[in-house]
Every structure is written in C-alpha cells, then in structure tokens.
Amino acid sequence: MSRFTQGLTLIEVMIALGMLALISAAALTAYLSSAQGNQAAALSTRATQLIAAVAGQVNQHALTLAVGASEVRYYSPASFTTPLSAPTSGSNCALAVDSLNYCVVISNTMQFNPTQGGVNVLSTPAELYTIRACWRKRGALTCAEADTIY
Questions:
Q1: Considering only CA atoms, which of 109, 114, 112, 113 is closest in space to residue 132?
Q2: Distance between CA 76 and CA 85 in Å, rounded?
Q3: Strand, coil or helix: 142
Q4: What is the C-alpha separation between 87 and 124, in angstroms, rounded?
Q5: What is the rounded distance in angstroms from the CA atom of residue 16 to the CA atom of residue 117?
C-alpha cells in the first residue's frame, strides 16, 4: 500500500485544523470590523439627514428662533419629521448612555447684513442658524454640526 492510500496522519490533520482556525479568526475579525464601521457610518449619515431636514424647516420659515436663542429637540432614528417631545430651550443634549435617539440643538447664532459701499445689501438682515445633531456611539456623545442662513 502506498502512503497516499493510507490517509492523513494525526499531525497533518491538526496542522490543517490550526490553519483553518487561524484563517477563520482573521475573516471573523475583518467582518466584525467592517460591521462596526458600517454602523458608525449609518449613524453619521442619519445625523446628516436630520440636520438637512431641520435646516429645511429653518429655510422654509417653519422653524424660527429669536437671535441668541437655542432649543433642543429629540428624534428617533426611524422618524425625522416629528420630535419625540416638545422642544425645550437650552443648548445641551441629555441622551442616556444606552439611548438610540438623536438630540438636535438649533441655535440662532447671529443676525447680519453685509454692506457694499457703506450700503446694506439686504433689505432684511439674514440670520445664521447652527444645527448640531448628537448621538451615542459606544457610550460617548458624538455630534455633527452645520450652519444655514435664513
């Protein structure tokens, strides 16, 4: 009988199983890292979409604040059209460590009117709104921010 018809030795099988375990561990690590990256990107994308939705409300005059005023709103990840509760004044997000919701701080930062040759360019001064959307990522508060002019 030749060596090839007798089968594999125990050492050969153990080496093959060790190599399979090593390759499987590397593939699993890559998969988990990719899944975490995708989740972080999804949270950031939702925050950007939420900022755009709120900026649209500001630009359509559906949301107005006095100069220097701020308000906080909370949204679920499933719906950016209706806040979870009535807006509150202030500029701090209070999301629980295990919260999946988004906190949005809308601030009317300032009023301005550019001039050209000493004459105001706009008939009505513009207002600068800053919109900051925050969410919990691995327990830490993470935020994205944008400005819009009204």
A1: 109
A2: 10
A3: strand
A4: 27
A5: 81
CB-CB contact of 88 with 111 (8 Å) = no
What are the structure tokens assigned to 8, written together? Answer: 């594999």
Question: In this predicted model, what pLDDT tens digit does every residue of 25-70 receive, in sequence order?
Answer: 999 999 998 888 888 888 889 999 999 999 999 999 899 999 999 9
Predicted pLDDT at 77: 84
State the Cα angle at 143 between 140 and 146, rounded to 5°. Answer: 175
CA dihedral 36, 41, 42, 48 (to 10 degrees): 150
Angle among Cα 102, 67, 51 to the nearest 5 degrees reads 25
CA dihedral 5, 7, 8, 10 (to 10 degrees): -140
Amino acid identity at 142: T
* DSSP character at residue 102: E
* Single pTM value for the model: 0.75
Q: 113 and 150 in contact (C-beta within 8 Å)?
A: no
CA atoms within 13 A on the CB side of 42: 9
Q: State the alpha helices, DSSP H only, in the chain.
A: 3-6, 10-59
Q: Are 47 and 102 in contact (CB under 8 A)?
A: yes
CA distance linking residue 34 with residue 39, whole number of Å: 9
